[in-house]
Amino acid sequence: MVVGCGSIGSAAAEALAGYGVGRVELVDPDRSLWHNMLRHALGAESVGRFKVAAMKDHLARHWPQQTVVAHRRDVVAEAHHIRPIVNSVDLVLCAADGIAPRRVVSHLSRRAQKAAVLACVLGSGSIGEVIRLRPTSRFGCLLCLRQQLADQGAMDAEADQELEYGTGRVHQPMTAVPPDLRYIGTFAAKVAVATLLESLHGDHTQQVPGEHAIIGLQPAGDLAAPFNLSQAGDVRWSSIPRPRTSCPTCSPG
Questions:
Q1: Which residue of 2, 82, 115, 130 pairs with 213 in a disulfide if CB–CB is 3.0 to 4.6 A?
Q2: Relative orientation angle of helices 7-19 and 178-201, to the nearest 10 degrees
Q3: Is pLDDT larger for residue 229 or for residue 251?
Q4: What would you report as the CA-atom Rg of the chain, rounded to the nearest whole angstrom?
Q5: d(CA 159, CA 63)
């Protein structure tokens, strides 16, 4: 399942189709707008359409052998509708804007015992972040990772993403260039496919170096570790902590 069919999500969906993933569930509540065209896989022909419907048609034209199911749902407001979809898939890839969708996907996928890959661009387009969450006793959820970073005194680079976007008020603009956004979407799809090949088919050539990847896009080196990359194209892999006993997602009740 791909949650979020924006710039990163549309690139991820195309990459999954190219890798041969035979069935994809797309989840997004929004319409494609004119300003999306600069960064999106969809073009002018899709402006005004709901992104999931337009992406379904786009994928069908290029990969007719693939099955695509479109869900015009908000993963946060309609989590009760998303839960059964999560139960039916092998992996969830979240590329939705904002902190809340990533937290919901982390929670739902953990409860369903499904792997998840979370992808975003942080720090005004300076770095990309891809997190793989696996529902085992070795690895915690997104909240466990963020709490570890907070305990270490690291800057949480996603804090400013909850400011208003595109409303004419004070907001954090999307400053990443289109190729960087597509790069992160494709990178996330690669991690997702590698995870499926390793976990479901035993292909150990598809092991990735860690669970948490920070990717240099336009890095200034002024963020705290582990976000403090200084070179474009650099990829820093690390692990994520074990589940916290107090975590409401990993250790409920």
A1: 130
A2: 40
A3: 229
A4: 17
A5: 37
The confidence score (pLDDT) of residue 32 equals 78
Q: If DSSP states are collapsed to H, E and C, what string results for the chain?
A: CEECCCHHHHHHHHHHHHHCCCEEEEECCCECCHHHHHCCCCCHHHCCCEHHHHHHHHHHHHCCCCEEEEECCCCCCCHHHHHHHHHHCCEEEECCCCHHHHHHHHHHHHHCCCEEEEEEEECCCCEEEEEEECCCCCCCCHHHHHHHHHHCCCCCCCHHHHCECCCCCCECCCCCCHHHHHHHHHHHHHHHHHHHHHHHHCCHHHCCCCCEEEEECCCCCCCCCCCCCCCCCCEEEECCCCCCCCCCCCCCC
**Other residues' Cβ atoms within 10 Å of the Cβ of residue 32:** 26
Identify the CA nearest to 11 among candidates 181, 196, 210.
181
Q: Would you state the structure tokens that stand for residue 183, as one six-digit string?
A: 């790069």
> pLDDT of 210-219, one tens digit each?
999 999 999 9
Q: Which residue has the tokens 């904002």?
A: 98
